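Quiz preparation item.
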């Protein structure tokens, strides 16, 4: 099996991808692909059995409706939050006490637009996790695996470099069958893509939390963040 993880930015500059080959009880990560264009990503997607993309797969249903025909003549905190957050965002908040970035009001809206173009080109209609494409959130995966999820993003800060090396070491300890080059500790986008590829494996094995019966309709439209319920099996 081959899993692909994509840390998607609005532009190739900060877009990274990780490909993992699962064979003989080991997960062998190829060197990270950096500065990925759409053409690069589509080629990698074509060769993968499951793909985890770190970007929202849709917008809140109420936000989409409001853009088409604004229904509100009053403004409230509750109304604002319904426009800002998806069902999956509220679920992550309940599970981990952290709000994901809002796809309708934060800068992650731009990667979401690029993600939607990729999903459309790949014929994805069920955004809840159709067996090949899964929305992932590396910080949520790391928290689910009881690992640090902060303080590693800035490229050249010594403390961030140290944090990335510690995170990669933690992944290797928790998953002793993982073979991943040190390159993944040199770049935060690459490290996120590795976590996304590992999460894609967990999702393909049914080892992520699925939307419930009251959430599935929204998830198919808005997307669903796949939080691991355990370590992926090699």
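Solution:
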């Amino acid at each position: 099996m081959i899993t692909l993880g994509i840390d998607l930015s609005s532009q190739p500059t900060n877009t990274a991808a990780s490909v993992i080959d699962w064979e003989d009880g080991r997960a062998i990560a190829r060197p990270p692909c950096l500065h990925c264009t759409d053409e690069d990503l589509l080629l990698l997607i074509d060769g993968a059995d499951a793909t985890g993309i770190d970007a929202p797969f849709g917008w809140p249903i109420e936000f989409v409706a409001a853009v088409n025909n604004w229904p509100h003549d009053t403004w409230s905190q509750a109304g604002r939050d319904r426009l800002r957050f998806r069902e999956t965002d509220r679920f992550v908040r309940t599970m981990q006490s952290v709000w994901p970035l809002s796809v309708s009001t934060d800068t992650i809206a731009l990667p979401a637009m690029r993600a939607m173009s990729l999903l459309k080109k790949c014929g994805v209609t069920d955004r809840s996790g159709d067996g090949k494409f899964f929305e992932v959130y590396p910080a949520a995966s790391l928290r689910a695996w009881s690992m640090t999820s902060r303080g590693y993003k800035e490229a050249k800060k010594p403390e961030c470099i140290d944090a990335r090396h510690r995170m990669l070491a933690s992944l290797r300890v928790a998953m002793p069958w993982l073979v991943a080059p040190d390159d993944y500790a040199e770049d935060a986008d690459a490290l996120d893509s590795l976590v996304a590829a590992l999460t894609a494996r967990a999702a393909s094995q049914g080892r992520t939390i699925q939307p419930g019966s009251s959430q599935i309709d929204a998830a198919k439209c808005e997307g669903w963040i796949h939080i691991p319920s355990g370590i992926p099996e090699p």
